[in-house]
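Hi team,

Below is the intake form for Ribonuclease HII from Facklamia languida CCUG 37842. Please confirm the fields before the structure is written into the shared record.

FORM ID: S-0412
PROTEIN: Ribonuclease HII
ORGANISM: Facklamia languida CCUG 37842
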Amino acid sequence: MLENKSLTQLKALMADVKDLDDDRLVALRKDPRQGAKKLVQQVEKRIQRQAAAYKAYQARLTYERQVLDQDPGLLIAGVDEVGRGPIAGPVVAAAVILPCDTHRWIAVTDSKQISDKTRRQMADLIRQEAVAYAICEISPQIIDQVNIYQASRLAMKGAVDQLSVQPDYLLIDAMTVDLDIPQMAITKGDSKSLSIAAASILAKVYRDDYMIQMVQEYPEYHFDQHMGYPTSVHLQALAKYGQTSIHRQSFGPVQRTQKNYKPS
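The structure came back. Fields below:
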């Protein structure tokens, strides 16, 4: 009888319950104790959250399945970039070819929708399990030469070119690249495709780490706080200390800056 168990024992018993019809949960619903009733609510909410997460994960495989329905043997690479909006730092793209088994990738989604901790956990998992992945960065100097849109496309192309395994098909976030590989541009692809989401995570973690490293070189700008985006803190530092070698000179706030950075 569950009534004879303490709430601590009940929590341990319910820890691996994954179905609302599990006999243990059905029995717990009959326990009249307030603590037991609260535990029932917690377990039910957890199961519902897990079910919703799994449903969303399955939805993020829709485009991959559409391609594989045509040829199950195709290797699909998801491609995404980060860093179009900042006024400092590179634009970074990643390409990822999913493994056959992605059951541990349920939390892989648009990098903007998850915490830094989860992003880094998923990045480690992606690097461990992906068939192949590659990352390409395009410098602020190149961005200034060709514009940010074309620099993003160059980064994406570079990431695909650097893959150790040649993909047969590309799923790309919102654009196409100049490669002789069949491809599909998906608007908001980082939230709709698992392959693109994985690429967005790798690119985001890589770029964040780059900007964090830049704190040592340019401590006055606090790049670890804003990653180069034009926040008030960043714009104040730009006005006070001037533009650095990693600022994008073609971007308005930097263009309006009349001084260059000098180390103190």
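SUMMARY LINE: The mean pLDDT is 95.

Thanks, M.
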